[in-house]
Specification:
Blueprint lengths: L10 E3 L1 H4 L3 H17 L2 E5 L5 H15 L3 H5 L11 E3 L19 E5 L24 H26 L8 H5 L5 E8 L10 E7 L5 E6 L5 E5 L4 E4 L7 E5 L1 H6 L9 E5 L6 E8 L6 E2 L17 E2 H14 L9
Parallel strand pairs: 1-2
Antiparallel strand pairs: 2-10, 3-4, 4-5, 5-12, 6-11, 7-10, 7-12, 8-9, 8-11, 13-14
Helix pairs in contact: 2-5, 3-5
């Protein structure tokens, strides 16, 4: 029997790029190119999100998820026309490989930019009672702002990796009305006497362009190696961000960059697992079509042009609808 292949998830230090070192910029862009073409997953170190902001955020989300269910349900997404707030266990089903899989075994809390109610997923956030969690809102939005800034830098590095002008994705990534989502997760522990490990999140690719994931030390994130159809653990690294390409970027790059299947299989453990995914899905009016540097001589675009909003509406309705949650297009 052939042994399971060793799949390497690159670890890329971007501190030199952020310090405006020309050599480090070129090296980081080259490393990102190789990672996105090969596996679509990497880990980022040397970033500029302060440890104090990460730690305050993780503390506050643990405090929120430890509240009684009755308190969390007061800010349920069921009360939000723009789908913000608390998401119950089983509120989403992301598994794209197993049609018999049950809903995801995680709970979440979602925040976007505060906006007037209107466009697709636009509107106000919901927040738990400040008498119970006085520091929660500030910690969450401080974290949101810091990771949004990091995502802008990552889009600039992605542009360089594709041979584009550094600011090519600036409007998409930095649009103040762009569709960014900061969703924290809590995975309940899987006790040692359980029959098997819990499917925290089913196998899926991300809908948008680029994801930045902060995970604690419990672990459980796995990525699929397509060539051998085998799953591989992504080990937690303190303070690092797991960065992965989503479906929009694969489409933009004409399949040059990979949107890779991944899942969370909670390990047998008595510990709660916490993580947070920041999705920068960008300006909704952006038309995604084959990039000029991603078309080979004699080749043609693999996809028709599509607006970001059109793509995201379809994917949100698919994944949430499978678990009985209704997502409406404004």
């Amino acid at each position: 029997m052939a042994s399971k292949p060793k799949v390497h998830i690159p670890i890329i230090d971007i501190s030199g790029y952020l310090a405006r070192n020309a050599t480090a910029k070129a090296e980081a862009a080259s490393e990102i190119r190789a990672a996105c073409e090969e596996q679509g997953f990497l880990q980022i170190t040397g970033h500029n999100v302060p440890a104090s902001i990460q730690e305050a955020f993780l503390t506050q989300i643990a405090n929120f998820f430890s509240l009684p269910l009755s308190e969390k349900e007061k800010v349920s997404q069921a009360h939000s026309p723009c789908h913000r707030g608390y998401e119950r266990i089983g509120g989403q089903k992301l598994d794209e490989l197993d049609t018999n899989a049950g809903p995801d075994q995680k709970e979440g809390f979602s925040v976007r930019r505060e906006r007037a109610l209107g466009g697709f997923l636009q509107g106000p956030n919901q927040w738990p009672d400040p008498a119970l969690l006085p520091e929660f809102k500030k910690a969450y939005m401080d974290y949101f702002d810091a990771v949004h800034d990091l995502s802008n830098s990552m889009f600039r590095l992605v542009a360089l990796s594709l041979g584009l002008e550094e600011g090519y994705f600036d409007h998409f990534a930095s649009d103040p009305d762009g569709l960014c989502l900061c969703r924290s997760h809590h995975y309940p522990p899987t006790p040692p006497d359980a029959a098997g490990r819990t499917r925290g999140v089913g196998a899926h690719t991300d809908f948008g362009a680029l994801t930045l994931l902060l995970q604690d030390d419990v672990g459980g994130l796995e990525v699929l190696h397509k060539a051998t159809n085998t799953w591989h653990h992504v080990p937690p690294i303190p303070r690092a961000y797991v960065c992965n390409i989503g479906d929009l970027m694969q489409r933009w790059t004409n399949d040059r960059y990979k949107s890779t299947m991944h899942r969370v299989i909670s390990p047998l453990s008595g510990k709660d697992r916490y993580s947070c995914a920041f999705f920068n899905d960008g300006a909704l009016d952006t038309v995604v079509e084959c990039l000029p540097t991603c078309i080979k001589p004699g080749d043609s675009p693999h996809y028709k042009p599509i607006k970001v909003k059109e793509h995201l509406v379809a994917r949100y309705q698919q994944s949430y609808g499978a678990a009985g949650t209704v997502i409406e297009d404004a």
